[in-house]
Amino acid sequence: MMISKIQVQNLLKVYGKDNTNKVEKKQFNKIPGKNDELAISSESRIKQRAMQAIKQSEDVRMDKVNQLQEQISSGTYTVNDDEVAEKMIARAIVDRLV
């Protein structure tokens, strides 16, 4: 699965907004005169999970980097022009749709 930078930014924009429409409220104390409540929106929970997943993901796949370095230094690295062009066009289409 390919996730572009634009998709991540859009996700954070959507879940970064405070949505007060759906809020769970829990009342902890039933003592007269004291009404403490805790309200956490489901959107905030989703945002928190997304941020944790982003923080835990690896930025650089060192196994892939090392493999490419070996291929380049040995002269065996080749680029398939057609595949590169197809992926560039597909990524541009996906970014426009999202």
Order of helices and strands: HEEHHH
Annotation field: number of helices: 4
- Secondary structural class: mainly alpha
What is the arithmetic mean of pLDDT? 80
Number of strands: 2
Distance between the termini: 15 Å
- Sketch the major β-sheet: 2 strands, antiparallel
Index terms:
4 helices, single chain, elongated, 10% strand, 98 residues, two-stranded antiparallel ribbon, mainly alpha, 2 strands
Q: Short description, anyone?
A:
With 98 residues, this protein is mainly alpha-helical.
Structure report:
It is elongated and about 80 Å long. It has 98 residues and is mainly alpha-helical. It is built from four helices and two strands, in the order αββααα. The two termini are 15 Å apart. The protein has one domain. Helix content is 58%, strand content 10%. A two-stranded antiparallel ribbon has the order 1-2.
